[in-house]
Amino acid sequence: MEWYEKLSDYFPEHEMKHPQQLKELIEENDYYHKEETDDYLMLYADFPSFVFIDYLLVTSNTRGKGMGTKILDRLKAKGKLIILEAEPVLPKDSDSERRLRFYYRNGFKKADLIRYVRRDEQDEPYTMHVLYWSPAGIPQAIVLEKMELACDEIHNFRSKRHYGRELVDLDEALKWKH
Questions:
Q1: Residues 108-158: tens digit of each pLDDT
Q2: How many CA atoms lie within 13 A of 125 on its CB side?
Q3: How far apart are CA 25 and CA 159, in angstroms?
Q4: Where residue 46 falls among pLDDT bands split at 50, 70, 90?
Q5: Per-residue burial over 31-44, b = 16 or more CB atoms within 10 Å of its CB, e = otherwise
Q6: What domains can be seen in the chain, in order of their start residue?
Q7: Cα(87)–Cα(44) distance, rounded to whole angstroms?
Q8: Which of 45, 87, 107, 130 has the CA that lies 20 to 30 A from 101?
Q9: Confidence class for position 71, pLDDT limits 50, 70, 90
Q10: What CA–CA distance (Å, rounded) separates 40 from 77?
Q11: Nearest Cα residue to 118 out of 16, 14, 8
């Protein structure tokens, strides 16, 4: 699966799902989609009330030319809440800051009331930001509810088969910040 190699070359290893899990998500769920062109690759879930962007990769020769904004604008035209995960700015990863700036420039907000901590294969915790865009003001309680659904339906889809565990422990990973 050449598209999987593109994703794994770009995204941190701990954020990559098992290739077979992604293949099954795409093939067996009407809501989960893969779009691939020479310019971009996107895996996302289109639920009735929101869109969850699992992976968005604009190819290096297309970056900075507005392709990512066009993709997001197309998703925004659905008139639904859009949610995604992004790693915090990491000193050793210059792409992390660029990615966050891109989403903020496109109207996404950080769900600053939500703490999102996942665990990698070695059971080490790592923090992610939950970013969202909404056509109208929306409380972060709704964002949290939809993020929990995305984690359950996407990250935990057949995860016990592929990893021997749930990828996201919903009781631990998503919490209100105090």
A1: 999 999 999 998 888 889 999 999 999 988 999 999 999 999 999 999 999
A2: 8
A3: 11
A4: very high
A5: ebebeeeebbbbbb
A6: 2-176 (3.40.630.30)
A7: 17
A8: 45
A9: very high
A10: 19
A11: 14
